[in-house]
Amino acid sequence: MAFTTLEVQEAEQAIAVQANSEDMFRLGLIYSTDVEDRGPDFVEAHKWFSLAAMMGSNPAKAYQAQLKNEMSSQDVTLALKAARGWLAENRQMVKTAA
């Protein structure tokens, strides 16, 4: 199942309005499968699963662990760095969502 760029934008806009684990998990699913027939982006998917897991999503924790097994250690490092960067830029929004 391929997702469209519009679906990605809708999920990102929802997170920009209010960070929540459901939308973060949705972005993880989108990026782990396919966007516009470009194939999966495991780094981006892992980033969103990590953030959703941090906010309490148990399914995201499971997907994150499974995805980690399919990624190189360098890609996992990139994903975690991207998640920390997103968190640093959006810390206030995450505090109000918690």
What does this structure look like?
The relative contact order is 0.16. The chain has helices at 5-17, 21-33, 42-54, 58-68, 73-89, 91-97. The chain is built from six helices and no strands. With 98 residues, it is mostly helical. Helices cover 76% and strands 0% of the residues.
Number of separate helices: 6
Strand element count: 0
Structural class: mainly alpha
Question: What is the straight-line distance between the termini?
Answer: 32 Å
Low-confidence stretches: none
For the biggest sheet, the summary is:
none
* Radius of gyration, whole Å: 13 Å
Give the % helix.
over 70%
Per DSSP, what share of the residues sits in E-state strands of 2 or more residues?
under 5%
- What is the 3D form? globular
User: What order do the SSEs take from the amino end to the carboxyl end, as H and E?
Assistant: HHHHHH
Mean pLDDT metric = 88
Please specify the SSE layout and strand pairing.
Elements: H1 5-17, H2 21-33, H3 42-54, H4 58-68, H5 73-89, H6 91-97
